[in-house]
Structure formats: structure tokens, C-alpha cells
Amino acid sequence: MSHGIPRGSGVQPATAEDRQKELQKIKDYKGLVESVHLRIQERQYTIDTLDLTTKLLRWNPEFYTIWNHRRLIMRHILSAGSGEDGQGFKTSHDASVNIISDELSFLLPLMRKYPKCYWIWNYRLWLLEQSTHYLPAVAGRQLWQQELALASKMLSLDSRNFHGWGYRRTVVNALESPELQSDGSASTLTEQEFDYTTKMINTNLSNFSAWHTRSKLIPKVLTKKQADKVARRKFLDEELELIQRALWAGSEDQSLWFYHQNLMSTFDPKYAADSMAPDLSGEERLEYVTQEIGRIQEMLDGAEDCKWIYQSLISLSILYKCLSGKWPVGQSVIGHWVDELAKLDPLRANRWADLRRDLGAP
């Protein structure tokens, strides 16, 4: 029995017929590989060769050399169809759109079947980059916009997939590039993407990638809005309220505390210049830190076994002392927090012992 399921009798021995079929598959595969290699050596960058690589990649998408062969063929086909003699210019670009679209469609079943095969994703991005190079801006942008919709679909199925978030950022960067604007100017999807992180966070608070992306977008959002000191402070207050609601709902979630820590850097003089509110006075920073210490202390009631609360209280107390020259609470209280942290996180006991000594806690 394994997990309550009876074990089977094991793998049945292969029959002579099964072995013969397997040997034939191996022979066919090796013959296909040799045929593709030979055609590439002879520079037969044709549709027939492309079809052979299609068959081979459906068989084995991890064969990265064949993806490189396919790039050579596609580059040859696209280059041949992008002549600039003025004859059939529209037709050649329409053909290129169809070729690239067909390639993107060819990849979709492979992506579904082998979602973690990086060669497929690398080739797909390369293909989209070719659309930027060979197609008019309007046509290329349309393909990239379709890719953004695909990224949204992927993240709706697996909202915390950091590869998916990274892929989405790559697509957004391409859509914002001057090469994909009909007038050659830069475009921005900053606010749209910021709203997207809000949507994904509201769907699932425990989404490290969404919080991370949000932290990177905030400076861009404020710059785009040309936010003054008042607007920046209002924005900061809204983010603090958002993370506080999230922390009350999931105080054990590490991703929430990382975002909270990022917001707290706004009040640290070492990082203030690059923060969302660089013009806060020392008194205003101290006021915010005091407020956060009070809020997080309230969380301890009923959550005494959450190590993240103690870590945050200690970090904020150190920041408070940096700003004011004194501790926000008695050192014995801070020592108690460190002791509780050591109990909850025994694997780092030496680290917490060093911290206790450095803080001079009794």
C-alpha cells in the first residue's frame, strides 16, 4: 500500500512487438535528426526543412539545437519577404505577419504540454522580437498586445508563477519601446500594470510577484503623474493602509512583510532620497514609524507565535532610535521580543543572540 492505494504488480515486461516498435521509433527519430542537420549544413532554409523541424520539436522540444536551426530558417524566410524595392511591399509584410502568427500558434500546444521548457519560451520571445524588426510598428504592436493577453491568461491560471510575472514584464517593456509606436515616441503602460497588481493582490494576498512588481511600478507611477509632496504622501498613506489590511488578514505571509519592509524604507534616511516620499521631514518620518510600531504591536494580541511581527517590531525600533536617538520602548521589552523570536526561529538562534547583544538588551 502507498498512501492508501494498493500497489500494482509493477511494470509489465515488454513484448517482442513492443521492443520492435520502440526500436523503430528510435530509428525514425535518428533519421529525422540526421536529415535536419544535413539540410542545415547545405543551407536548405526552406519550408520543407521547417516542417521537418516542426515534427522533431513536437517529438522532443528540449532539443535546443533544433530551435537554433529553426531560427536560421525563419530569419531567412522573413528576410526574403522584406525587400524594400517597393514592389508588393504591403503583401510581403502581410505574409510576414501570417508567418510569425503561424509560428506563435505552433508553439501554443507545446507550451501547454511542456510549460517549463525554457527553449520554447526563449524561441517565442525571439520570434516576437523579429516581429518588431520586420513588421510595421502597428502590426508588431498588435502581436505583442496579444502576447500580453496571453500572459494575463497564464497568470489567471497560476497567479503566483514568478516566471509568468517576469515574462509579463518583458512583454510590457517591449510594448513601451519607441520601436512599437507608430510615431516613434515612447509609450507607457505603468498605470495599467499598477492597476493589474491591485487586481491580482485583491484576488490573492499571498502573491510575492505581484507585490514585487507593484514596488517597482510605484516610482514610475508617481513620476508619470508628476506628483508633488502632498500627492506623494497621500499615495504613501494609501499603500500603508493597503498593507495593514493585508497583514491583519494574513500575518504569517512572508510576502506581505517584505512589502511592508519596502514601504518602511521610505522613513530610513539612508534610502529616503529614492523613496516615494523623499521630502518627508525627520519629524514626519518619526511620526510614521511610531504609528507603525503601535499598529504592529496590536497584531501581537492573538498572534504571539508569528515571528514576522517580532522581526518588524525590532527593525522599526532600530529605525526609531536612528531617527530620535532613543528607543520607542524599554530595552527590556525589545529583549523580550528578541527572546520570543529566538524561540520561534531556533534555526537562527545564534543570529538572534548576536542581535540581542548588539542591541544591548538586558
TrEMBL record:
Gene Ontology annotations of biological process type: prenylation
Residue numbers spanned by region Disordered: 1-20
Any one GO CC term of the record: Rab-protein geranylgeranyltransferase complex
Keyword ATP-binding assigned: no
The protein's enzyme class: transferase
EC number, UniProt record: 2.5.1.60
Molecular function via GO: Rab geranylgeranyltransferase activity
SUPFAM superfamilies (alphabetical): Protein prenylyltransferase
Keywords: Prenyltransferase, Repeat, Transferase
Catalytic reaction equation(s): geranylgeranyl diphosphate + L-cysteinyl-[protein] = S-geranylgeranyl-L-cysteinyl-[protein] + diphosphate
Coiled coil: none
Recorded family membership: Belongs to the protein prenyltransferase subunit alpha family.
Job of this protein: Catalyzes the transfer of a geranyl-geranyl moiety from geranyl-geranyl pyrophosphate to cysteines occuring in specific C-terminal amino acid sequences.
Name of protein: Geranylgeranyl transferase type-2 subunit alpha
